[in-house]
Amino acid sequence: MKRxxxxxxxxxxVTATSWAQSGSSISGTVTDSKDNSPLSGVTxxxxxxxxxxxxxxKGVFKIQVPDGPQILVFTFVGFTDIELPASNNMQVSxxxxxxxxxxxxxxxxxxxxxxxxxGSISKVGxxxxxxxxxxxxxxxxxxxxxGVVIESGSGKLGQGIKVSIRGTSSISASSQPLYVIDGLPxxxxxxxxxxxxxxxxxxxxxxxxxxxxEILKDASAAAIYGARAANGVVLITTKKGRNNEKTTFExxxxxxxSNPARKWKFLNAQQYVDLIELAAKxxxxxxxxxxxSGYTDVNAAIADYKNFYESNILDYFSLGTDWKKAAVNxxxxxxxxxxxxxTNQVDVSAYGGDAKTKFYVSGFYNKQxxxxxxxxxxxxxxxxxxDHTATDKLSFGVNLSVDRSQLNxxxxxxxxxxxxQLVAQLPISPLYDPKTGDLNSNTLYSNGLFDAQFNxxxxxxxxxxxxxxxxxxxxxxxxxxxxxxxxILNLEEDAFQGKETIDGGGVGKASAIISQSAxxxxxxxxxxxxxxxxxxxxxxxAGMSYLQNDNKxxxxxxxxxxxxxxxxxxxxxQITFANSTGARYTFLSYFLRANYSFNNKYLLSASVRADxxxxxxxxxxxxxxxxxxxxxxxxxxxxxxxxKFINFLKLRASWGQTGNAEIGEGNYLALYGVSNYxxxxxxxxxxxxxxxxxxxxxxQTDIGLDFAILNNRITGELDYYKKMTTDLLLNxxxxxxxxxxxxxxxxxxxxxxxxxxxxxxxxxxxxFKWNTNFNIGFNRNKVLDIQGQVIEGGFGLTQRAIAGQxxxxxxxxxxxxxxxxxxxxxxxxxDGKATSDYGQAALVVLGKSNPDFTGGFTNTxxxxxxxxxxxxxxxxxxxxxxxxxxxxxxxxxxxFDNQTIDELNAWTGPGDVTNTPRAGxxxxxxxxxxxxxxxxxxxxxxxxxxxxxxxPKSMMDSWHISSARLYxxxxxxxxxxxxxxxxxxxxxxxxxxxxxxxxxxxxQAKTITVGLNIKF
Amino acid sequence: MKKIKYSAILFVAxxxxxxxxxxxxxxxxxNITPDQITTADDVKALLxxxxxxxxxxxxxxxxxxxxxxxxxxxNQVDFVGTFTNYKDIFNKTEDKQNSVxxxxxxxxxxxxxxxxxxxxxxxxxxxxxxDEITGEAEFMRGVALFEMVKLFGLPYSAGNVSINPGxxxxxxxxxxxxDPTNALVSRASVGDVYAQVxxxxxxxxxxxxxxxxxxxxxxxxxxAFLSRVYLQMGDYANAxxxxxxxxxxxxxxxxxxxxxxxxxxxxxxxxxxxxxxxxQSNAGTSNNGLTTFYSxxxxxxxxxxxxxxxxxxxxxxxFRKTFTQSGSSIGGLSGKYTLKWADFYKAIPVIRLAEMYLTRGxxxxxxxxxxxxxxxxxxxxxxxxxxxxxxxxxxVTGNDFVDERMRELGFEGDRLWxxxxxxxxxxxxxxxxNKLVLPIPQREIEVNxxxxxxxxx
Lengths: 1016, 457
Fold this sequence. Notes:
The structure holds two protein chains of two kinds. By secondary structure, chain A is mostly beta strands. Chain A is built from ten helices and 53 strands. Helices cover 9% and strands 47% of the residues of chain A. In chain A, the strands form eleven sheets. Chain A has a 22-stranded antiparallel β-barrel. In chain A, strand 27 (574-598) and strand 28 form a beta hairpin. The radius of gyration of chain A is 32 Å and the shape is globular. The two termini of chain A are 31 Å apart. Chain B is mainly alpha-helical. In chain B, helix 12 (353-367) runs antiparallel to helix 14. The chains are: A mainly beta, B mainly alpha. Chains A and B meet through helix 5, strand 26, strand 27, strand 31 and strand 32 of A and helix 1, helix 2, helix 5 and helix 16 of B.
């Protein structure tokens, strides 16, 4: 550190004095090769001389060089050094180190150069995250990092996002990764109303503040986070200023317009009437054939049923309009969406620094309208990152962000009031009552538009994330760093349901939830980097960490309001529920790590972490998590040293053990909870004790290859991994005759095995540039042993953990087709033959919800000021269950809901060969959950396409700005899939077993964005 | 100077570390552990927890009343809702994975768990109170076992009671750490379960006081349940005796009009045992609870409508015939709704005095000889009929009682048990039909190899 500071001081002195020297003056401009934008702050030095300068904010430099041929060296953080012969009016184009071997990677409790890393780490840089039209930054990672699967459950805003790194490594505990922002583990679990969908606390982070996201995938990289790293670790580093850089202001602004990416196809009025008539015919015929009501004439039977359907449904719900002529044809699906839902974002940042202090300051405002009505998300906030070097030994700094977000929510997918269920209303139902002109209140299900009009559910979150650090260099080789951080999240959710609405129950209801999560974290560690000569490099870290989280929650629900005028709890006159709860957890950890490299050729790393947590009983409170890794840079060996084809080749291998403790509090204790009976307050048993409860452990082996070939034009990484999770924290079922239904026990094992391929290629490199980035991750999950436990999840169709199968397989009745004679749905029977008796159908594994492989590929083109990129993501091999199918394709048996168009193929009579069983409210068939509603969920999606233009320099000068980029981008513009709805769907966002189920879920947004980025 | 600085930092670090270890002991803030049950109040709280379980949707708050009526739906109730678990039971197509039997099963065994804990810790109770607390715990256990054996086993009337499987009888206090060696219980025979039910309820009737505060179970609640047990067993003399004890206690009166027996804030004069509800403590208002199903939208879901055949049971002038309202289900079907469960947060009558009259009358009639209690069966049935404006009968048969129970006790979960004990068809099915017996929940079979599934599942 001392050296660097003195060097920097030197630089300034030299720069100042260099003007006085003789020789010739050389000038030029340095630009970023990616978009030809000027680079300011680039150090330009004369090789072998103490002469140097920096580029100004237009990228221009001027330097006095001695006479004679000279070499200029251009260096800049984040870019590859360039050496060029000095000449006048130089045009220097520098390549970003992003996705190269010199890239600096953030690792746990430190940094490393990618070349020296022996673990498997994916880095996603700010360019991929910036200005992505997504409610939360994790969405921007989708398809960018091999083996990282991001599932946004729906097109609702602010909702939870499921992230799996190298598969699912737990059954009952959380399988979400640990998120660490600037060294501080942050709260990611939903704090809002547990009766609604979980929301995502990470959505409070401004994506444009993020410098990089590093995803620690293998054990060697992640084990330094030991107990909480089994699901991988996501390290988020926010932007910092740079020393000796003039202050740059940056303004980003965009507007975007969104619409649903995919819609279902539902019946129109005429088709609905036709299907109703078919159902009447089928029911009448069935009744007659089976002698149910004793009809002597089939036509009389049909006429009776026709009468039932027409009077109870068609006449009743058409409100006197002529349904026979389809006089009303309401497209209810279109009513649940906003047209061209608008998003705007503006953010401004300033960054720079002098020799001792560097800073980054930003503020942002973002307002998003969801594609679904009544769902809005507003955010604003600011960030301040400051680093100060006090002496050559002491430096300190602070990273602080304060945000407020407001989420206007809609109800969960499984609520009659949710806009997504409007599709169930009948196309013959008028939107407005023809008699009164008011919104139709006489619909099949209560009209969710009333809820949209009268209800509100507003969640406001205040988030303060901050940490301060102090760095003290005892010796040049020994540094001590102490960090103290806090993540304080305050959430208030006020919900109101008016008298007119189904959720208001005719009396009007309101609720208030206040939730507070406060995490205190401290990390204290020594870093030892002795000088062992040129060949030997050692970096050792030893330290401790303590984390304490306190969660407070107060909820009140009331009802009975005088009128809809007061839209909060104060308007209610009867409290139905009020409670406040608190929970704390703590983690105490010690860690050690050593990285050694010999001759830049042989790399060795070892780490161990000891963790203790309040979540486990005294019997097994501590867990120990070691990791080892080694790397061999083959390209440094003699036999490859001058190889023209291979520029870099590194073989690496790692093994390590990580843990999982995400099980909530007090699970090792037998507990009673309070029961509430009028005047008789009591206790009831809640949980069984397990004093031996301990960490779930994941051992992971990783073998990888990093390479660069063809003059570094193609770089890539190949990885093979195998993760074995043992001592699974399982909710083990016990006979309910004990009074308990399950308890948490370490039992069983599960594995994930896979391959990852990442390729980056510079296809054409010149004035016209074409780069391709490709990644793909294959993962095979297998539950090895759960000792016969039945562990289920899922929404409509049951999903299970079954030994020998991937986790969360769909499990149930297999639909085989339709009997052409009877129209009965046929299922695979327990005897292996087809049966029309659903109750006799065998329960079998029907498919898996986890994909075989996922990935993405990006093509980027640039020419002069123009750039174009197209980014596709793909997912293959998973199934999606449409849990709404039993209603929307159930042939009226489960209600008179409007049907999807495939129900038009319903069986019409003996001899009709079809795959859609007999329709009918009374005697329909095939309406139960079965593989009938299970679909191939594979898809490929044009996730993002963007076209940008950097305004020419001549224009910039006159406006005194250094760069300006205008861009247009599109998200989810095209999707290829066999699934009839949106394949990016998950009505149960969290949970390891349930997944890939659709229940009137809002599809993803298809978005067009126009934006501007200016630096001056 | 340097040394001082180093030691200061080390000292601070050491101090921080030594403090941290204590931080790992975190005590739950809204739960207690078993070792915290140390006082009489703690034990009583466990007993009161049982009332909560009886109140919830898997108890009398909904399913113990609603599910028997869905099975005996004919001429009584139509299920027009979307919940497939209920719809399957209504259609007699329920399978072993249906969540309703699983919910009832686990809830009732939780009752047993608590009763057994209370009985085990009875020494913490003041000796003067030990008897009544014992009786109350036995009452809860007896009622739970009785409801279970009726739902999950063949009826007593089907005979073979020493062979037909009932439900497991659990009498030991719970272990707080799971131990499979004594947890894999087997189903006791129907006869053995009835014997345990009689033992518990009889002891409860002996030990419970004649009246209790807060509408807790008293000796008459135990006797009223005993009358039901004996009636199921066809032991008419004892059934009549128990019903007569309740009637002749003088503690209860028929309310003057039928509607006053329902939707009361707490027990009416005719409630022998009722579940209390308030806005803060109830069986559910959106997806569960009797009112949720039986009340039309927007208050309830309106999933359970009065079957068109119900009114054919009534003669002219019978108030009970018109004790309905019109409305619509959440699925958009309009129909008639019983008013018995019209309002949220009201007491749920489990046993009313009217039932005791009908039981005494029928039991005396079927028993023959001089009537226990000295009241003619005809007078008992007419007492109930006249209250609702029905015409007095001139003579009475056993079948009159069957129909009168439908008129008086419809939608209160009685019909199925009346038909079964008399070996009468239920919704067109023989009374021993497989689908009229709930399946042993599949998850229980899977975790306990000693449990035998019922036929047909």
